[in-house]
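Why do we care about 3D structure at all? Because function follows from shape, and shape follows, mostly, from sequence. That is the central idea of this module. The next example makes it concrete: a single protein chain, its amino acid sequence, and then its structure expressed as tokens.
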Amino acid sequence: MDSELKRKIVMRANLTLMMIIGALLQVSAVTYAQKVTLSKNNTSLKNVLKNIQLQTGYDFVYPIDLVKNAKIVTISVNNASIEDVLEQCFKDQPFTYKITNKTIIIKAADIFSNTVEDNVWIDISGQVTDEKGQPLAGATIRIKGSQTGTVANADGKFSIKNIHQSDVLQVSYTGFITREITIDNVSGSLQIVLKEDKQALTEVVVLGYGTTKKETLTGSVSTLKMSSKENMPITNASQALHGVSGMWINQAGSQPGQDVASIRIRGIGSIGEAGKNNPLVLVDGIEYDLNAINPAFIENITVLKDASAAIYGSRAANGVILITTKKGRKGKTDINYSYSYGRQSPTMLPDVVWDPILYMQMKDQALINEGRSPAAVDYSPAQIEEYRNGMATDPLTYPQNNWFDIILKTGYIQQHNVRFSGGSDAVLYNIGLGYMDQDGILIQANHANRYTLNANISANVTPKLKIGTSIIGNYKTFSQPAFGGANATNYYFNRLTRALPIFGTYTADGKYANVVFVTPKRNTIENPLMLIKEGSNTYAGQSILAKIEATYELPFNLKYNLNYGVDKEDAFRKSFEPYLVSYHPITGAPNNYNTHPASNNADENYLNQSFYQTLTWDKTFAKKHSLSAMVGTSYNNFNTINFSGHIEGYFDNELTDLNAGSTLPSVTGQITKNIIMSYLGRLNYGFADKYLLEGTFRYDGSSRFARNKRWGFFPAVSAAWRLDKENFLKDLTFIDLLKLRGSWGKMGNQDAVNLYSYLNTVNLGYDYTFANNISSGAAIAAYNDPNITWETTTTYNAGLDIDVFKNRLGVVFDVFKRRTSDIIRTVKIPNQVGGLAGPTKNIGTVDNTGYEISLIYRNKINQFSYELAGNISHVNNKVIDLHGEKIISTRRITQEGYPIDSYYLYKAIGIYQNQEEINSSPNLGAGVRPGYLKYADLSGPDGVPDGKIDANDRIITGISSPKYNYSFNLNVGYKRFSLSTFFQGVQGIDLYPTLNWAVPFNNGAGVTKEWATDAWTPQNPNARLPILTVATDATENFQPSTFWLKKGSYLRLKNIQLKYDLPTKWLSKISMKNISLFVNGENLVTFSKYKDFDPEKDVTGDSFYEYPTLKTYSFGINATF
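And the structure:
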């Protein structure tokens, strides 16, 4: 910046400052002319001063004990100046007063009359309270223009020594108006009363392309202040969203470095891939990965659930999550540092049989139960006896391995975050750095590191021009087991569930062992220790979101805002799958896990350029009519470049680069581009802040569709009525807010459409024979619909907001309906057409209806404060139209009249007790025996029972998404201690566990202990489980049936935290503002009927092949300098 430009900026800044000072002097002059009307007879001086304060707005400062000795006052004035009133009040009193700005200082009479030297240094002490006399612990008392100051203690008291008589005290507290008090040779104890800053206490809600006040909000919006999640051991923002009204957050595992949470807002609206139901996430107005931002750098989160999301048009059908990062605030630089360390372990694991003798006996019994001869079981009595004896003498050959103990350990997580924030009238800044180090519960290949940056800087370049820039950076690495690619951890847990207690770890000579006895159906022996220790699978990814923003104030109340942001992400995955062999612990015979080493590299690049500009106008007419308008344009350009390479034929396991391989090389890659252009607008009208109306629109064009289908219009309208401002309620002074709301809007879901879905694509590889020669060919593999367009969601919402008893009690109630039409899915075509896939078309309609209730009550009694809050959300999902089609997938069905992905099962009606009962009933299969499940014959082809058990007898029952989501929390505080508890749960969801461990001996896997104690036998006919069999042999017991459908509802103590704030009198000596010490418990207790695994699991899969949910015990410190 050249010197001339600097000079102009300084001149303008000085001119602006002079204008502000001049305006303040004008206001001051007017204020001093205020008049007082007062009539009091034989009343205390303190009472008179309070009346003067109420009429004029002047503040009085005086020593606490001073006015106790004042004489009784009788005064009667009408429209008198404040000076005349004060003269009458202080007539014949032993003290006098002095007016400084808006403050009246009262002292002993000789204080102001005595002549003193200029260079006088004094001591000051006092107490800071609110208007109710409650102490304001932590209030800041500072000498204006210096670094000298202190913080009020728990009683609101403070003292500052050796300050100059001409100094000015600045007294501030969050949510209160800052006061300035001239010392002017005053000593003794001061009583300083701060007034609430009504404007600061008004909650501001972030909306699309703007903000509004809670009182004037017309839509259904949930807000989360991240201060409520402070010090919790959360690593990503999705964890913080638990408990937000109207949202279902299913965490489904705690793998380090990965966020596998599914987020649903007011139900599931689309059919098919889970990603079609994801909400749009914006960070400071730009789309960004929710998992990439450090939760410690988030100020608040807003969730748009109804028509308020329509301003984001074709990408808002599943709701919108708006994240606002922390910004700088005016004042000296604050340095905040936080540290936490926690230990982690699984919340719940299956109760597996790890006793090798019991395992072999149960396996043999299962085979006998299904008809196998005792002489043909897997483990003979002699083998079992040999194993029993060998466990004591040769534990390597005859192990009794609990693979949980061998493979799992206690993990840890530590986080460091530091923030620098502050600013002046010219520049505001907030810069944060974070580091996370997490070591998972697997003994190896389970580590993650993350480095984060968040920088926000804004500057008032001129009185009309404000510019800002922000950078959010993230660099993370994590490791996984070698085999399984990007989902290697889940693949490894699949292998772990196949581990048996008789599987060995090492042979006597240090090689990887397999098993002493041949295990049927286990041609490949998976030694879990070998699979986790050998090879490598690493991920390194970085992302940066850079944004620049400018706002310029134009004439006629116009304001122009310009934003340009770039989200650049790239990641590199590298895995090496070595050649692995395990050996028989006695003979040394090898068993190959795989036949050759292989290496895989993948490079992923993503670039999103986002540009939007808005022009806003605000005007108030006749003091009652408020009108505001906003129009804007938006442009998004999404680009991806993906590349992957695979090669085999390595000489050994040492060289792992791609160029060291020699056989079966393969390369794949993809480049995509997608552009969205938009025009948008908003119009708001309010009459006396009582009747509120809002309308929005967005006109989107997307390159995902054909030219004649690219543009869509998405309007919305909402209104609210502030009943608390009506005259017929004015006498009900306990009502602070009573507002009715209603909204309607349309939104789209273009992300449900794959790129180029409107084109018939030609695929290579369709070779053909011509004249006995094979020639290369190409063919159309699938028909596509050129008229395909986005899914459309229409929302209806009615709501009620209530705040009463000085905002101590708050209630929010909403009832809603979301109808999603033109659902995108692949349509089947007749087999006569050939081996072609059907086209992707807009077919289907789904409804989500429900309600939400949120309550909060908070109060403070002296130094004790408490807050009780909770919410519950109900969603009823129903398929309205599928053109009569049924979508069936093993145990699930999507059909008109039922929820998406309902369970489609045989109805189990008990357990067969004897052969006679079997002979007299229709059966599913020829191998049914006593102890097997009995199924109901409900229907035949013509709808009536036909004496057979077949697909006609299946019923639709159970749902895979919860009907109810709820949470509640209790926070209490006393003096410097605070305790918070947070509970979260779901109700009305079903799970269907299957495969390894969920059913006995599945495909050679193990078994859980319940089958040893709760399975049917002739001696135990009332058992909970059917007779013990091998699931993959005797399949009659393990058909999809209601018997195996489990209730997945749960209530979890999600977090409990105890915090202690160190006394301010200690901190002031070391120039500290605050130090908090805390201990945390996360996911400590879960109440659920589902005992097989943690109930918060992946509902799209029915296995245990996923990383467990972890509970965490942590402690830490949060300090501000």
